[in-house]
Amino acid sequence: MDWSAEITYALRRITPHVRRTPVIRLSLTGLPEIEVKLEHLQHTGSFKARGAFNSLLAAQVPAAGIAAASGGNHGAAVGYAAHTLGHKARIYVPEIAGPAKIALIQRTGADLVVVPGAYSDAAAAAEAYIAETGAMQVHAYDAPHTVAGQGTLMLEWEDQGLKADTVLIAVGGGGLIGGALAWLKGRRKVVAVEPETCATLANALDIGPETETNVSGVAANALGARQIGRIAYGLAKDLDVPSIVVPDSAILAAQKLLWEEARLLVEPAGACALAALLCGAYTPEPGEKVAVLLCGANPAPDPFG
Amino acid sequence: MDWSAEITYALRRITPHVRRTPVIRLSLTGLPEIEVKLEHLQHTGSFKARGAFNSLLAAQVPAAGIAAASGGNHGAAVGYAAHTLGHKARIYVPEIAGPAKIALIQRTGADLVVVPGAYSDAAAAAEAYIAETGAMQVHAYDAPHTVAGQGTLMLEWEDQGLKADTVLIAVGGGGLIGGALAWLKGRRKVVAVEPETCATLANALDIGPETETNVSGVAANALGARQIGRIAYGLAKDLDVPSIVVPDSAILAAQKLLWEEARLLVEPAGACALAALLCGAYTPEPGEKVAVLLCGANPAPDPFG
Hints:
homodimer; 305 residues; alpha/beta; Rossmann fold; 2 domains; 6-stranded mixed beta sheet; 4-stranded parallel beta sheet; globular
C-alpha cells in the first residue's frame, strides 16, 4: 500500500468537511513543555470524523446507506459524515457507550440502535443488518480508508510545524496510530499508550496479533477494542513501536490537569496519552521534544447533559 | 500614548509567561464560517493573564506585594502572575464570584479575601489594604499597562494570520476591547458586545462616560463592571465603535452551541460575543469576514468542582 499517496488523497477529499484542529504549546505542572494538538475539537468531538469522511468519499455508497457498530465516537463520526453527505446511516451502539455518547449520535440524525452487551454484540447486529440490506459498512479502525483518513491528522500536524521528536498517541483498535505510523514511517518516534485496563496492542505485541484482551476501566467506551486491528499491528510490529500502559488513576489525573490548567475538557481516552508523561510511564530523554495528541472530548457526564 | 509601542513592548515582556493561544475556523449550525481565537485556554482561563503579567513586569513591585479586587478572572490572573514572578499577592473577591472562581484563585497560591456584597465592596476593601500596607494595585481594566497587556492579544492574532474584516469582542470594564482598539486603531472593525444585563459601555456611549449601570445576569461575575473604564471609553468614542447588547438567553445558547458542536467549554462571558451572531443582534454584510474572541473559560459549576 502506498500510504503516503493514500493519506495525501484522503486529506484532499476530507478538507472541505473537517476542521483543521489547532495546536498549542503547554507547560503543565510537573511536566516538560509539550506540543499538543487539539483534535478533540474535531466535528463530533474526536479524530474519527477524518476516517468516516474518507471512507464515504472514497466509495460508492449504496442506496441502503451506511451501517456501523461503535462504542460511540466512531458512530457519531459516521452518522455526522453520512448526514453531511446526504446518506442514510444506521449506527449500532453497545449499552456500554453510555447516555452522553448515545445522545451525541442521536444529534447527528442517524438511525440509532442500542444493543445490550459489549462492542462485539453491537458489531454482530450491524453485520446482520448489512447482510440483509446491502448497507455499506464503515469499519471503526481496521480498513485502509479509515486508517488513511486518520493518517491525515499527522500530515496536517507536520504542516502546522510539528517540532517533536516523539509523539504520544492513545490506542484503542489502532486506526489512529495506524494512520500516524503509515504517514510518519519512522521519521519520528511514535509511542503507543493504552490503559492497563485495555492493553490490547501491548498484549498483541507480547503474545501475538490474534490475542483477545479483556477490556474495562475509565476509557473502555472509546479504547475498548478487544483485538488490535491488523493494519495497526503490522505497522507497529514493523516499526518497532514501544507500547506502554498507564493506570486508570493516571488517566483521570491527566484529564483533571488538562481542565484545571488549560481549560481543555477531554474524555478519559483523550487524556490517555498525556497520562503516560504524568505518571512516569514514559520519561523523555534530556532534550527530547515531546508532542501529545488529544483525541477525544465526549466526556460523561456531559456538562450540558 | 503610543499604544503601538506599548503593546509591542508588552508582548515582549509577557511572552515567556503566557500562552500563544490557538485559532480555529468554525462553521457552526446557522452561522457563517468564523475565525475564533481560543483565548479561554490562556493561563487561569482568561485573557486577563496578559494584563496581569504586563502590569507586574512593567513596574517595581514593593515588598508588600500586590493587591487586587476582582470578580474572579482578574484576581486569578494577578494571583497566578504574582506567584510565577515570586511576589506576594492578596486578592479581594466579592461573594458574587461564586465557588468555582474562588477555588480558581485559591489554587494560584494568593492570599484570598472574600468580601460580602458586590464588586465595589471588594474594591473598597482592596483600597483600604493598599493604603495601609503600600501594596501595589493592579487595576482590572482601566490602567495603561493592563490595557496594553490585553492589547497583545490582537497583535498576536494578526501575527497568526487573522483575515477578518470585523472582530466581535465581549465588554466588561473595557480592558480587552480597549487593548484591541489601541492596537487596531480602526484598521479592522471592532464590535463591542455586552449582555443586556450589563450594558455598561452601551449606556456610557448613549448617556455619558460617568454613567453607572446596574449589573446582573449570567455573565455578571465576569462582565459586571458598573462603570466603563476611561481608556476604553475614550478609544470607543474616538473610533465610533458600535456597541450591541444581547439577552442572557442568547449567551447561554451560544455557550451550549460551542460545547455541543466544537467541544469548547467557556463561561457565559466567553460566549457573549458569539451570542451576537446567534441571536441576530449583529448580522454581517454579505462577504463580511467575521472573527469572534472566546475570552473566558471559568464556568460554574466547574465540571471537576
